[in-house]
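Cross-check.
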Amino acid sequence: MLSNWTRRNFLGAGIAAPPVLITSIEAATKTDGKNATLRAVIDEIIPAGGGMPAVSEVGGVAYIQKLMIDEPAMGRVIEECLTTLNGSASSPDAFSK
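Predicted model, tokenized:
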């Protein structure tokens, strides 16, 4: 039953995944300079706090990049959002700093 899933349980289950899998996903999904923006965005949504890590610290960037590959339509939307965020910033990486 999903009602028993807390953020701590969810992250604990993710940590139980083999680190090799996460590393290989990260290596296979490296893209251009938008990684820093993606990291900043997801860390705004799920920041570190209360003794819990930020989402980027537990493979969140790699997960979303893999999702962008597996679901091209969603990938295009995410890519457009990242481009818009970077385009409206005062410098190319301003949002991610």
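The radius of gyration is 14 Å. The mean pLDDT is 75. Passed to J.P. for a second look.
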